[in-house]
Amino acid sequence: MTVEIAGLTAKFQTNYxxxxxxxxxxxxxxSLMGGAVDYNEGFVLPMAIERETVAAFAPRKxxxxxxxxxxxxxxxxxxxxxxxxxxxxxxxxxxxxxxxAGLRSRGTRLVGMDILxxxxxxxxxxxxxxxxxxxxxxLAMLRASGETMEDYELARLCQKAEHEFANSPCGIMDQxxxxxxxxxxxxxxxCRDGSVKHVPFDDLSVVVLVADxxxxxxxxxxxYASRRAQCFSAAKKLGVKALRDADEExxxxxxxxxxxxxxxxxxxxxxxxxxRRTVDAAGALAARDYTRFGKVMLTSHASLRDNYETSCDExxxxxxxxxxxxxxxxxxxxxGGFGGCVVIxxxxxxxxxxSQTIASxxxxxxxxxxxxxxxxxxxxxxxxx
Length: 385
Ligand code: ADP
Ligand code: MG
Hints:
This protein is of the alpha+beta class. It has eleven helices and twelve strands.
């Protein structure tokens, strides 16, 4: 499901009294493998999805940036490019302000503009609407000012905007896949040096299902920050730069010698094998070995549930329901956890039946719907012609 451009154009006309001169799109993503690994400098395997954020824009003669969103209709924002740019209200616009501040400080000649956003992504659902918002903002601003930027630098700039303006200490995965995703490919990203490998995933006999528990999280909340801190402290005590540099023998020795607090050991028992599993999963995907890939997904989910403790009843139930279906290879939480979406690898021919089984089982248990949509690997962000 993509954003409807005609409706966006009409709304732009209503908000700003003129037509937009351009559009950019930025996709959401699922995390196929690699949970809680990005900030530990390991490997992650995300894929851009067919749901996306679109920005309609038009430059202005003055130095104002006006922002509005169809997801925040009563909360428009405005700031001047020549004043200090600081976070404030409405909070959704802070992602965009952070991008403008970052572009300005690297010397990009920004121009005043009106921007209207719309998205087919759920907000706060673990499909990375925040990175899509940042990247769409950046592409619109670069386009309007006639400048370009290298992908990796752009990803860093958007991540910094989220850290500094939205108070959300996210890793580099979301922005990278949003910018660098390729149609028919997942992306194996080394979060240590930012290097990427596009992994072919264009087999039409399988499809990715995304099931939204509609349990909402915010990674600016405590659970994410505390796990991050536990991982950093575990790495420090193990004498390594990041948990990327630890192995399972080191963890066994640390367990024997009592080097780590119990909670740190538990977190490391997730992260260290998860990094290896993610590389393994990329190999399985490229080899079209979906049975192996699905097993790795399930191991990852169980470890996020038991060692990392970032799952919840709704997520676990969707994974269990998926496992009960013929034609479902595996499932795991996609994103920061504590709610949001489950990603399921399914036989294309069975996807409809699997979706129905999950939706009705979820409704029986929780008394509310669990929206599910199929997607394949979509391209990264771009200016629309
Ligand atoms: P996720 O990235 O998983 O969707 P986050 O909590 O990181 O969840 O980001 C969600 C936040 O991003 C929303 O609460 C909102 O502030 C902002 N946001 C994202 N997309 C939009 C949009 N189209 N319009 C307004 N705000 C948006
Ligand atoms: Mg986000």
